[in-house]
Write a structure and sequence with these properties.
mainly alpha; globular
Length: about 500
């Protein structure tokens, strides 16, 4: 693999994501303090609905970007240009579709926000502003994908991250000065327009030949390949939405936006942490895609190293998350927003299990094998929705509303373990590595069990103190110690992992 470009892409992505994590937490802090936790819950609901609408993207971007890798390596400018033009047409249709479907959802908003009547908010206007900010992003998505296909992810990451940081700064200012949710959402639109301008300028300077190329069309063989991959990625997108967006929508509809606001503080910190860690993997997609074209025989070796890195990062960060999350919520937002320990435990397990898919998903996308498990997300999503609705009712009746949240998340964990963690690696090994997957599956479930055991061992070691900052520091250090012991034990007991790491 091209190590310099890999390090640059990852470093820029992680650096900016950390800054964005701080910015997003500050925005949420002021949103809760000056506008209210109820509006914070509504904001989370809107984001889930937008995630649902993003199914319109169909996976077009990933499919066409993958098809660009080979012609870029071969220097076939004509084909790259024709694929780019296909990008433009596709995203134009996507933007119009999202706007139309999103507008059609507005009358149903009161039914999705159970206790919305308590809020002094215009649901129609605020949701439309959120929708518009996302639709604008599709106007320049073709250029973003083109830049990424040339392995310059650090450029698009810089543009989007600077835009988001400007957005966060503007949102904090308008929250403090106007206390207006509408003004808060207008800042999203302005920041997206700035990203659009910056992307146009960079693409115009560095990819002028592609942008101004003739009008060659995509050949029939490539069209067929793209259509097949789009079908597969569409199914993946549907499954992802039914798993990730459905959880917040079900909590909002069956329990209410107030409790969703509390839960979203926990999930936002976990998601922000996961997104920082995930950039170590997603920033390498184009690099591994090129490597798979050039040196396919080494791909499994790269995967094994990335998989252990996946596990090590998950253990350190998610043990740490569990150790300090209650203190973080109290310090950053408000002590009254802390949920029961059962919620933080189940949230930790859920996000660790989801995070353990990162290496597999990275290599699946880079090698183009997402077509082979195209039906997996459909069954994953349907099972998750059915279990979530059943569990939220059962758990709420047993232990109250907060325990109902535990039920929704438990459904997601079961879905991940029974479907995702079996089918995804199976497809990767069968269609990319051409090897049996049994050993990997056994190791994967053992690693998950090791993490849960470490989490249970960590729980009684955590200290309770009057000073929140001191408690956070002490418990954070304890989690680091438990993480070190856990990883050392794995390395000592699993010889194949040690060998895989040492292999050049």
């Amino acid at each position: 693999m091209e190590k310099k470009k890999s390090v640059l892409n990852v470093s820029v992505a992680v650096g900016f994501r950390l800054l964005m994590l701080i910015g997003s937490i500050l925005v949420r802090r002021y949103l809760i303090r000056y506008i209210g936790n109820e509006v914070n819950g509504l904001d989370s609901l809107y984001n889930s609905l937008i995630g649902f609408l993003s199914v319109a993207e169909l996976g077009v971007g990933s499919a066409i970007t993958f098809c660009m890798y080979k012609p870029i390596v071969e220097g076939d400018t004509n084909k790259v240009a024709s694929l780019y033009r296909l990008f433009v047409k596709a995203y134009r249709v996507i933007a119009i579709t999202m706007l139309a479907v999103g507008a059609g959802m507005i009358p149903f908003l009161p039914y999705l926000a159970k206790d919305y009547a308590e809020l002094d908010v215009n649901l129609s206007l605020t949701f439309f502003l959120m929708l518009l900010s996302v639709v604008i992003s599709y106007v320049f998505s073709a250029k973003t994908s083109l830049i990424n296909a040339y392995k310059n992810n650090y450029v698009t990451t810089t543009i989007s991250s600077v835009g988001m940081l400007i957005q966060y700064g503007a949102q904090i200012i308008v929250i403090l000065t106007t206390h207006s949710f509408v003004a808060y959402l207008v800042c999203r639109i302005a920041a997206m327009v700035l990203q659009w301008i910056a992307t146009d300028i960079y693409a115009g300077r560095h990819h002028r030949e592609i942008l101004r190329h003739g009008k060659e069309t995509v050949d029939a063989g490539t069209k067929k390949e793209i259509i097949n991959k789009v079908k597969a990625l569409f199914m993946h997108r549907v499954g992802s939405i039914l798993v990730n967006s459905a959880d917040s929508m079900i909590i909002s509809a069956f329990i209410g936006v107030v409790l969703l606001g509390k839960y979203s503080n926990y999930s936002t910190i976990a998601l922000s942490m996961s997104s920082v860690l995930a950039l170590v993997f997603t920033s390498l997609t184009s690099i591994i895609g090129h490597s798979y074209v050039e040196e396919r025989e080494n791909t499994e070796r790269y995967f094994k190293k990335m998989y252990f890195l996946n596990f090590a990062l998950g253990v350190v960060f998610f043990l740490g998350y569990y150790a300090v999350i209650d203190d973080l919520v109290a310090i950053l937002f408000d002590g009254s927003l802390i949920l029961t320990k059962s919620v933080s435990f189940i949230v930790t397990v859920n996000y660790f299990i989801q995070f353990m898919r990162q290496a597999t998903l990275l290599f699946r996308d880079a090698t183009g094998t997402f077509y082979n498990d195209r039906w997996k997300p459909f069954f994953e999503g349907i099972l998750n929705v059915i279990l979530s609705i059943a569990f939220v009712k059962i758990f709420t009746n047993i232990g109250g509303e907060e325990f109902g949240v535990v039920g929704v998340i438990a459904a997601t964990i079961i879905t991940n373990l029974l479907i995702c963690h079996v089918i995804e690696p199976y497809v990767l090994y069968k269609h990319a590595f051409y090897k049996p997957v049994r050993r990997h599956l056994f190791r994967n479930y053992c690693y998950i069990a090791v993490f849960i055991a470490a989490l249970l061992a960590l729980n009684p070691l955590l200290r309770s103190m009057e000073n929140r900052f001191l408690e956070l520091l002490v418990n954070g250090m304890i989690s680091i110690g438990v993480s070190a012991v856990t990883l050392l034990a794995v390395l000592l007991l699993d010889k194949s992992t040690r060998v895989g790491i040492k292999t050049k």
